[in-house]
Amino acid sequence: MSTTLTPRRRTAPAPGTSPGSAVAPPRRTAWIPTLLLLLGAVYCLIPILWVVTAATKSSGELFTTFTFSPGSGFLDNLAELSAYRGGVYWRWMANSALYAGVGALLSAALSGVTGYALAKYRFRGRTAIFNILLAGVLMPPITLAVPQYLLMAQAGLADSYWSVLLPSIVSPYGIYLARIYAAAAIPDEVVEAARVDGAKEFRLFRSVALPMMVPGLVTVFLFQFVAIWNNFLLPYIMLGDDHRFPVTVGLYSLLQQGANAPALYTLVITGALLSVVPLILLFLGLQRYWRIDLLSGAVKS
Amino acid sequence: MASHQPRPSRRLAPYAFLTPAVILFTLFFAVPIGYALHLSFRAVQVKGLGLGSHARTEVWAGLSNYTSALGDPELLAGAGRTLLYGGLLVPAMLGGALLLALLLDTPRVRLGTFSRLAIFLPYAVPGIVASLLWGFLYLPTVSPGYFLLDKAGIGGPDLLHGNGLFVALANIAVWGGTGFNMIVIYTSLRAIPVELYEAARLDGASELQIALRIKIPMVLPSLVLTFFFSMIATLQVFSEPMTLKPLTNSMSSTWSPLMKVYRDAFVQGDIHSAAATSVVVAGATLVLSFGFLKLVNKRSDGGS
After folding, report:
1. Alpha helices in chain B (DSSP H)
2. What is the ipTM of this complex?
3. B32 and A147: CB-CB below 8 Å?
4. Which of residues 162-191 of A touch B (CB under 8 A)?
5. Disulfide: which of A201, A219, B47, B204 matches A291 by Cβ 3.0-4.6 Å?
6. For residue range B119-137, what is the model confidence (pLDDT) as tens digits?
7. Could you read off the pLDDT of B58-99 as tens digits, one per residue?
8. CB-CB: which of B117, B222, B266 is closest to A296?
């Protein structure tokens, strides 16, 4: 494991500016790299731009007008989507928020306490437990989801909120990140000093270690939130009643019906646009809390 | 850690902290894996006409589910399609991510923050929604690309049939994954001490030479990590082809191995052969992962 987790800060630049250096030539713009990057940005924004304009079109306009010219039907589409089957779309959005919000919170808490124990204690079975947990990352989701479904069904929990929420809580990857972060962020001396002061082990974790792990756990929360919000396979297998669908499965079922009734396509498109708005806001609003260096730091072990 | 005899509470504390994770892991990972293995060795035997409550019994099937899974041409064809798809996707995505990260790290680049955010943005879009958006962009009747090609008097390529389907699917994953991998590589580029570049510049090295000789070797561990995760994600491809399926009739329900497992278990109701197939997929993933890690470790041991 590397001793430092945060990259050695460069002398000059603030985040986002190009790295200057002592021998930097006069500040002319590097045109070719800038243009290539903008090309990449355009490629990534095209589908987003498309869905924004397509959501404004009535179903007549969708197949007849030029793709990027705005239509006149956004409010109608919105009203139609909200009215569809008694507002089931908004229920899907609320379900996604519930699965992702509660699931990611519990997942970050579990990763935190587990990662802390694995990083800061030497005990029998430590390596074995860590390796077994880590092997969970390699399990294809379907290898888990099919027997998980059958076991949930036997426990009478299939097609319930629990069937999607409970399996999302254990995240081998989150535990792995929390362990790396705890090892780097909590100095052994601080832990020892707290023990000398008479802190009990649980109190030590809660009052000393946990506050130091918060930035890493925010990252785990964000990763898990995105992973659960974007998950399709698990809820698709577990749920039958569309009142419990998250928005991914809901949109998929809408798309399948749209194959027979193209009028539903405008609803699918409007629904797709609205479903990415919360995640994009979360992502832009919290981007400075994403500690991607956690990921890169993970490689230097 | 101190070597003197710790207090009992300190010896027991890690086990207490690990208990919730161990219980949940056992319930939602270990038991299902064991159950999948159990199911894979069993089969339903139908007696007589299959009528009555005792006509269908579960019996030990030995390796028969495995031999039929491994000999199944559909599974082999699905594995072949997945390999072809990964062969397009992984080099394009990681090559693009490395190039964009190097461009971001080039001195005197403008609008870097904007480009970085825009390219990372697709990471926040669910695979289902990404496939849905691209699916519509592939439809000749709504796509701006086809509109422009049509105006120019050229017929567009058919992306929803035949070989075009591989390109279409790989493009969705490239769109969704390049930004994330770019950020991982860019973060490790930022960790390289600038003194290295200054020395190289004083020696007259160009930015391109610095990129090739210093930056790429220094971010090799990040590339290994991103390659590893991309490889696992490729083997597990499911939601993208599932989403394109309603838009084209040339996507079979067994296009990828996971789609076949899903169909066997939930459409055909044969959980035993589905379990055997999913164990085969898991086994292949584990073998490839450990083989890859071993290869990487060997290389780095030999190098240092």
Report:
1. 8-25, 31-40, 64-70, 73-104, 112-120, 127-138, 144-151, 164-190, 194-202, 207-210, 216-218, 220-235, 239-244, 257-262, 271-303
2. 0.87
3. yes
4. 166-167, 169-170, 175, 188
5. A219
6. 999 998 999 999 999 988 8
7. 888 788 999 999 999 999 999 999 999 999 999 999 999 999
8. B222
